[in-house]
């Protein structure tokens, strides 16, 4: 065959990375869906908006120490009863501004807002609700440690967008997309639309999120257990039993960064379990279902892991209120099951004692 007809030799390595650098988030979503339907286009557009919000927040975070008024507290307390950081307010507003222009989202439900924020001009066609935690791990913001953002997208159900957003009070299996942004040494966006879990890394020189890990699978078991042991004496005895077990057995290591997204990200890649149990005073725990636990539960199940309240899959929990909290045990199948086994054992002991007391 004359040279002209010779097929192009296999592209040299640097060209293959060029091809990878062209795998942007919007293209990846469409590839996942193998479709150009209106819903596929919507999801691709929504993920592109999430990526824009992530870039705007990353830009602020990387310069926070130099920008007047970027850090510190606002002096206000939010619906969670928590002191609000200036970065919480900024990031919350970023999502509002980015999605107001999207035309797709009619309502935003945020950790930082008591009630959902409606975008009336989007509602006639806006077919989606965004639920989000704009800055997760706020306590890390002022000390330049990793923070995150967590998001979930649900379809708009019905017309009556009542104030109390009753239609949002559904289990986590109604999420059509979920993920998080990790603002760390690099900014990563990890997402799923129900077809596996994929990670993108921000290339600041391009201003694009580029595919860095595809079809992430969480190990069946891992060495990490991640929990705030400062709460040890507030927990149910069953959790203390679990902690004593991992203290006494080889092969476990404690890692706790104070930001759910960073702690979860480590476990997604290395295996293990993150625990935020309830306490005697607050049996429901600290973490919020709709925009912290449920989105991560969606992801971890897509990656082959599990997320539990200790007695029920997180994705089956139906909230009564927008800001409902649940205990959270999330990570590798075997490690979540181990925690649950201590909870079940204690429950059996208590039933036996109650039965014995009745004799
Ligand atoms: P947020 O900053 O959105 O309120 O979330 C903080 C959460 C979560 O990120 C983290 O795992 C947990 O709070 C840490 O709580 P403790 O400080 O009680 O350990
Ligand atoms: Mn949070
Ligand atoms: Mn938050």
Oligomer: single chain
Low-confidence stretches: none
CATH architecture of the largest domain: 2-Layer Sandwich
Instruction: Count all strands and give the number.
Output: 15
Amount of beta strand: 15-25%
Catalogue the ligands.
2,5-anhydro-1,6-di-O-phosphono-D-glucitol, manganese (II) ion
What is the CATH C-level name of the largest domain?
A: Alpha Beta
Number of domains: 2
Count up the helices: 8
Biggest β-sheet strands, sense, barrel = 8 strands, mixed
CATH homologous superfamily caption of the largest domain: Fructose-1,6-Bisphosphatase, subunit A, domain 1
Structural class: alpha+beta
Shape: globular
Order of helices and strands: HHHEEHEEEEEEEEEHEHEHEEH
Report on the architecture of this protein:
The chain contains 8 helices and 15 strands. It is of the alpha+beta class and 359 residues long. It folds into 2 domains: 191 residues, Fructose-1,6-Bisphosphatase, subunit A, domain 1 (Fructose-1,6-Bisphosphatase, Chain A, domain 1, 2-Layer Sandwich); 135 residues, D-Maltodextrin-Binding Protein, domain 2. The strands form 3 sheets. The chain has an 8-stranded mixed beta sheet, with helices on both faces. Strands 12-11-13-15-14 form a 5-stranded mixed beta sheet, with helices on both faces. A two-stranded antiparallel sheet has the order 1-2. Helix 3 packs antiparallel against helix 4 and helix 5 crosses helix 8. The longest helix has 26 residues. 2,5-anhydro-1,6-di-O-phosphono-D-glucitol binds next to strand 5.
């Amino acid at each position: 065959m004359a040279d002209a007809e010779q097929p192009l030799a296999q592209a040299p390595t640097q060209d293959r990375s060029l091809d990878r650098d062209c795998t942007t988030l919007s293209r990846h979503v469409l590839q996942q869906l193998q479709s150009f339907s209106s819903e596929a286009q919507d999801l691709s557009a929504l993920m592109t908006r999430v990526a824009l919000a992530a870039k705007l927040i990353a830009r602020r975070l990387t310069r926070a120490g130099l920008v007047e008024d970027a850090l510190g507290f606002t002096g206000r307390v939010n619906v969670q009863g928590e002191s609000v950081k200036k970065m919480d307010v900024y990031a919350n507003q970023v999502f509002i501004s980015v999605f107001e222009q999207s035309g797709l989202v009619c309502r935003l439900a945020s950790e930082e807002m008591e009630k959902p924020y409606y975008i009336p001009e989007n509602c006639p066609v806006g077919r989606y609700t965004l639920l989000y935690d704009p800055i997760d791990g706020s306590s890390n913001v002022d000390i330049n440690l990793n923070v995150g953002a967590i998001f979930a997208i649900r379809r708009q159900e019905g017309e009556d967008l009542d104030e109390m957003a009753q239609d949002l009070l559904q289990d986590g299996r109604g999420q059509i997309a979920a993920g998080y942004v990790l603002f760390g040494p690099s900014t990563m966006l990890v997402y799923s639309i129900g077809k596996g879990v994929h990670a993108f890394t921000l290339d600041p020189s391009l201003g694009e999120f580029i595919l860095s890990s595809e079809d992430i699978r969480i190990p069946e078991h891992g060495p990490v257990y991640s929990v705030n042991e400062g709460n040890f004496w507030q927990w149910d005895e069953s959790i203390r039993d679990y902690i004593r077990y991992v203290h006494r057995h080889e092969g476990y290591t404690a890692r706790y960064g104070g930001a759910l997204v960073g702690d979860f990200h480590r476990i997604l890649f290395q295996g293990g379990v993150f625990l935020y149990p309830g306490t005697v005073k607050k049996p429901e725990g600290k973490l919020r279902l709709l925009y912290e636990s449920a989105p991560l539960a969606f992801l971890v199940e897509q990656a082959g892991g599990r997320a539990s309240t200790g007695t029920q899959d997180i994705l089956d929990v139906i909230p009564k209120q927008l800001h409902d909290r649940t205990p959270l045990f999330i990570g590798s199948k075997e490690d979540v099951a181990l925690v649950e086994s201590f909870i079940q054992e204690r429950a059996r002991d208590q039933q036996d004692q109650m039965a014995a007391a009745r004799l």
